[in-house]
Task: inverse folding
């Protein structure tokens, strides 16, 4: 099968969502000017550079009470900071609950029953029990093609790692089993690892 997105695919659900998988989930926490802590999962997320460490996430769609964006992007525009919380398998239900559309004045931390902790380098909350969290300052928000499509770039200024995930000096993802987004309503969990030596090592 071949199709051009501009002409549609003719299938019951958009296959594009299932092609680029698995995708890590950036659980983005932000704080509004009213002091309300927001938390939302984004599967268009990844690291983009080592030195200095940088990340990106993309937001699509909007909320009527936020104009052209969602709470996360609106809060980042105002504050210039955000935190990326890493999602473990054990937190899958809380992550899913935090994806619910709420009024800007209600916190997803409360809705999902999550304990929060204050970040160290930025004025923002983080998920206290997350296996890792990346404190970020805003580099840029780029308007992508199409309505309400925004790419957010940030520099990592602080990194939290849960002590039980450090084994012999290595951050061991099998200790928490990261959650990944697939297509449609499907997710996966990383439990098995293998290593490959690079040809030029």
Result:
């Amino acid at each position: 099968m071949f199709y051009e997105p501009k002409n549609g695919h003719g299938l019951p659900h958009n296959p594009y969502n299932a092609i680029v998988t698995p995708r890590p989930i950036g659980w983005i926490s932000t704080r509004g000017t009213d002091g309300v802590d927001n938390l939302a999962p984004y599967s268009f997320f990844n690291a983009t550079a080592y030195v200095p460490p940088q990340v990106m996430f993309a937001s699509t769609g909007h909320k009527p009470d936020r104009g052209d964006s969602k709470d996360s992007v609106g809060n980042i525009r105002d504050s210039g900071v955000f935190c990326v919380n890493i999602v473990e398998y054990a937190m899958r239900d809380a992550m899913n609950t935090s994806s619910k559309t709420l009024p800007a004045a209600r916190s997803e931390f409360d809705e999902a029953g999550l304990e929060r902790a204050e970040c160290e380098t930025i004025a923002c909350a983080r998920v206290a029990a997350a296996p890792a969290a990346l404190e970020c300052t805003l580099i840029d928000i780029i308007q992508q093609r199409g309505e309400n499509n925004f790419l957010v770039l940030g520099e990592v200024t602080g990194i939290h790692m849960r002590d039980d995930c450090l084994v012999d000096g290595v951050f061991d993802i099998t200790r928490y089993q990261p959650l990944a987004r697939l297509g449609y309503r499907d997710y996966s969990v990383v439990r098995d690892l293998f290593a490959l030596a690079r040809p030029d090592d």
